[in-house]
Structures are given as C-alpha cells and as structure tokens.
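DM from R.C. (forwarded with permission)

"hey, sorry to bug you on a friday — could you get me a structure for this? deadline for the figure draft is monday and I only need the backbone to look sensible"
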Amino acid sequence: MKYKRILLKLSGESLMGDKQYGIDNDRVKQYAEDIKAVHDKGLEIAIVIGGGNIFRGLSAEKSGMDRAQADYMGMLATVINSMALQDALEKVGIKTRLLTAIKMEQICEPFIRRRAVRHLEKGRVVIFGAGTGNPYFTTDSAAALRAIEIKADVVLKGTRVDGIYTADPEKDPLATKYNDISFREVYDKGLNVMDMTAFTLCEENQLPIIVFDMNKHGNFMKIASGEPIGTLVK
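My reply, with the result:
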C-alpha cells in the first residue's frame, strides 16, 4: 500500500445519499465497507466528517443567527454523523474510537493528540468529531489540523465529484479535470478545493491532498493503493 496513515475527510452532504436531508443508511454502510477493505490491508485511518446534511452554521448566520452559536450547532451535527459512521464501522467488525473537540463524556473521548495516535497504532479507526472545537473554522480546517497533528501521510477528500476541474463539472459540460496540480496553481486559478485556512495549513506543512469520488465503490481502496484516480494537490 502506498500510505501508512491517512486522514479521510467526508462532507456531511455525502451521507445524505439521494435524500434531501439527514443520513442515508445505505450510503453510510457503503462507506463502512470501503473503509473496512482498506483497514484490513493494515492502513491506519482517521476520519473527519462535516455536518451540512443536518445543520450548516454559515447558512444559519445568513438568516440572522449569531455566527458563533450557529457554528457550535454545526459542530454538534458533525458528532451525530460521526456516531452514525462509528456504528456502521463497528457493525462490519472494525474497532473504533470517537474523539471530539467538545467534551461529551457519555458518548466519546475528548481529543488528546497522543491518545489519538495510540488508538491508530493499535489498529482502531479514529473519528474526529466537533470540528476544531472553535467557531469560525470549517471541518476542512479540522481535517487539515488533525492530519498534521497525527502526522498523516495524506488528506483524502472524498466527494461526489471525481477530482478537481477547471469549472464545476455539474454546471459546465466543458470543464476538464486535473490529474495533479500544485498548491500555487490552485491559488492562481481560484479553484475551490478546501477553504483557504485548511488549504494553507496543508501547503505550509507539505501535506498532499487528493480529491476523489468516495461514492464509487472501491475508489477508496484504489486511492490507498496509489492508483492515480482523483486529483492530487502537492
């Protein structure tokens, strides 16, 4: 396998499947099976999930809610998603640990970097919930931060699009895909890969990002094996 330790970033919206809201159990089950296949090869896997399928802080702010309050609500949404994925992973036989940036002792452990690394070394899939624990930061930023803290080899951003394009491929039929691209090119072309805080963190710490289609069964294994699918940012 190409990598030893990876950070998988999933959007909350990806858990919706074909629904308009909430969690699609079939989609979560598919993710769990794909993650198990890679985990069984001996890779150490950490996961960060967004919360946009349940609550999005930025949208709530636009309707008049205090931004910090809305962001904390969004953090709680990520914990709900994390618990759903944790349950699906354990149903396929994987030992997991959910660590959150906000203390919730009855359902998870508080995030402690050394403990997270130890769980990974023991072969557990570690899920990081509640973002960074701070308002005004996205779960992309949480993914970049946690990946750097645990010394992950790569950030894998699983989306519903199979990479980075010159324009939105769902809107522009002439959009073309990049197989690989530099951090500087992403800045210069104004491409939307991650929010700028997360992206800058990855660049400054020389942490590569791969954007790929997580919804296609088997893609996660191909990425972990080093197959050139998706788009590599380096």
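R.C.: lifesaver. The first strand starts at residue 5 and ends at 10.
me: no worries. Residues 67-91 form the longest helix (25 residues).
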